[in-house]
From TrEMBL:
Keywords from the named record: ATP-binding, Kinase, Magnesium, Metal-binding, Nucleotide biosynthesis, Nucleotide-binding, Transferase
Protein name: Ribose-phosphate pyrophosphokinase 1
GO terms for biological process, alphabetical: 5-phosphoribose 1-diphosphate biosynthetic process; purine nucleotide biosynthetic process; ribonucleoside monophosphate biosynthetic process
A Gene Ontology cellular-component term: ribose phosphate diphosphokinase complex
Keyword hit for rRNA processing: no
UniProt organism field: Cyprinus carpio carpio
Length: 323
């Protein structure tokens, strides 16, 4: 593949390396460091003039530092005469702050701010995965390819859950039910039943009570969501499903953020397995929790990069896992 360069930010070098290996490319030379006053410094170590540049940086870990590093890398490539700069952001930062939550509130719409920052830095194209709200694509005036983990999730379910034909796919909240590539879509493609948990919140990150809509008695329940942060919701949901008669409970999440008490909650919850993709590095989490399993989605991102570079359609990836 001529005229293409892939650079890795410091948020998830393992994923960047897998993508580069899949494409048969070397990662570009880049040095990121911090000055003593904590300013981020980036040096691109090779020519990018006239090249199609892809920068892989996920919204995880030290989110603000990593976002700033991505913006600086985009800008460095742009002013070094790269022909096109694509930001590959497997987990989009600030995606949950996508709207004003209450009428007349002074809440920011930070996802729009991040979109503006990426555009001003010089990004020509964004590749991301399972956006928390698909309208974030409309915050940009540049093309955004929102890929779905759904094909990889379907493959994992069929290969790892023997009783998958007798399962119920469960959304832990109403928002996830209608999300593109979400719960109803997975239930339809497996031709199984669907259930919903309605939760009432008194304040953010705390669930007050839950109501199950649908039947899971004597079935395997598979909770599907786009992200899990402190895991309060999915652990509550697992208890609810077991008390409603589910034989086993699995959770499948695209972005396993697992902050705060998440790992200890998963360890004590009624899960057979908690399955996440590697949009966020999970090596440290796996050491402390043997229930976590990881689906590798590097081939989906790599194929999206290859197709984008060659000017091909990426819509095939919405329903297929590349071989």
């Amino acid at each position: 593949m001529p005229n293409i360069k892939i650079f890795s930010g410091s948020s998830h070098p393992d994923l960047s390396q897998k993508i580069a290996d899949r494409l048969g490319l070397e990662l570009g030379k880049v040095v990121t460091k911090k000055f003593s006053n904590q300013e981020t410094c980036v040096e691109i170590g090779e020519s990018v003039r006239g090249e199609d540049v892809y920068i892989v940086q996920s919204g995880c870990g030290e989110i603000n530092d990593n976002l700033m590093e991505l913006l600086i890398m985009i800008n460095a490539c742009k002013i070094a005469s790269a022909s096109r700069v694509t930001a590959v952001i497997p987990c989009f930062p600030y995606a949950r702050q996508d709207k004003k939550d209450k009428v007349g509130s002074r809440a920011p719409i930070s996802a729009k701010l991040v979109a503006n920052m990426l555009s001003v830095a010089g990004a020509d194209h964004i590749i991301t995965m399972d956006l928390h709200a698909s309208q974030i694509q409309g915050f940009f005036d540049i093309p955004v390819d929102n890929l779905y983990a759904e094909p990889a999730v379907l493959k994992w379910i069929k290969e790892n859950i023997n009783e998958w034909k007798n399962c119920t796919i469960v959304s832990p909240d109403a928002g996830g039910a209608k999300r593109c590539g979400g719960v109803t879509s997975i239930a339809d493609r497996l031709n199984v039943d669907f259930a919903l948990i309605h939760k009432e919140r008194k304040k953010a990150n705390e669930v007050d009570r839950m109501v199950l809509v649908g039947d899971v008695k004597d079935r395997v329940a598979i909770l599907v969501d786009d992200m899990a942060d402190t895991c309060g919701t999915i652990c509550h949901a697992a208890d609810k499903l077991v008390s409603a008669g589910a034989t086993k409970v699995y959770a499948i999440l695209t972005h396993g953020i697992f902050s705060g008490p998440a790992i200890s909650r998963i360890n004590t919850a009624n899960f057979e397995a908690v399955v996440v993709t590697n949009t966020i590095p999970q090596e440290d989490k796996i050491k402390h929790c043997n229930k976590i399993q990881v689906i590798d989605i590097s081939m989906i991102l790599a194929e999206a990069i290859r197709r984008t570079h060659n000017g091909e359609s990426v819509s095939y990836l919405f329903s297929h896992v590349p071989l």
